[in-house]
Amino acid sequence: KFSGDRHYVLGNHCVWTLTKEQFRDNSGARATHYSFDKNGVHIIILDACYRADGVPYGNRNYEWTDTEIPPAEQEWLEEDLSKTNLPTIAFTHQRVDVSNSFGIKSGSEVRKILEDSGKVLAVFQGHNHINEHKEIGDIHYVTLAALIEGSGEQNNAYSILDVYPDRLEVSGFRNQVDYSL
């Protein structure tokens, strides 16, 4: 049994039949967006489970293509980044690096906040169910394969992230590929 810290990145599947509050109450998640420091790295968990009109996802009230990080969370992100001097890694379910149906509507604004801070090393994201890596503005954007894409071990993926002073190493398992960033 895993005994380490647990952090949840809320995604559209998490709240298909639940509200965000129900998910938090039943999973033990501390919040839907927050940050913390661990071993000399600042970690940011973002919540893009909002519709473009600002309504939070919950109980089948959304389309998976309508995803947004609302202005209040963007302001929080900018303030949070201004308060740290640590190298930073961000996590979000929906993609920040694309403007297609898999991307956050305000993705370019969020990327600008991340880039302007000069502190963000990488963003780990999902939603697209593919392995992909790209670098935009000196930030690595890593899209991870789906944790579960059907029944059987051959249809799942997971990874371990190791943080070193000079690089990040993603060790992928099953359908997840490795990355050295």
Please describe what this structure looks like.
- The structure is a single chain.
- The chain has one domain (12-147): GpdQ, beta-strand dimerisation domain (Transcription Regulator spoIIAA), CATH 3.30.750.180.
- The protein has three helices and nine strands; from the N terminus they run αββαβαββββββ.
- The chain has helices at 20-27, 71-82, 107-117, and strands at residues 34-38, 41-45, 88-91, 120-125, 132-136, 139-143, 157-164, 167-174, 179-180.
- The strands form two sheets. It has a six-stranded mixed sheet with strand order 1-2-3-4-6-5, with helices on one face. A three-stranded antiparallel sheet has the order 7-8-9, with no helix packed on it.
- Strand 8 (167-174) and strand 9 form a beta hairpin.
- The radius of gyration is 16 Å and the shape is globular.
- 30% of the residues are buried.
- The model has no long low-confidence stretch (mean pLDDT 93).
Work out the number of β strands. 9
What does the main sheet amount to?
A: 6 strands, mixed
The backbone outline, from C-alpha atoms, is globular
Quick one: CATH superfamily?
GpdQ, beta-strand dimerisation domain
Alpha-beta content class: alpha/beta
Could you name the CATH topology?
Transcription Regulator spoIIAA
| First and last CA, distance | 29 Å
Given the structure, what is the number of helices?
3
Nearest-angstrom radius of gyration? 16 Å
What is the C-level CATH assignment? Alpha Beta
CATH architecture: 2-Layer Sandwich
* Average predicted confidence as pLDDT: 93
Q: Kindly report the oligomeric state of this protein.
A: single chain
Order of helices and strands: HEEHEHEEEEEE
- Percentage of helical residues? 10-25%
Query: What low-confidence regions span 5 or more consecutive residues with pLDDT below 50?
Result: none
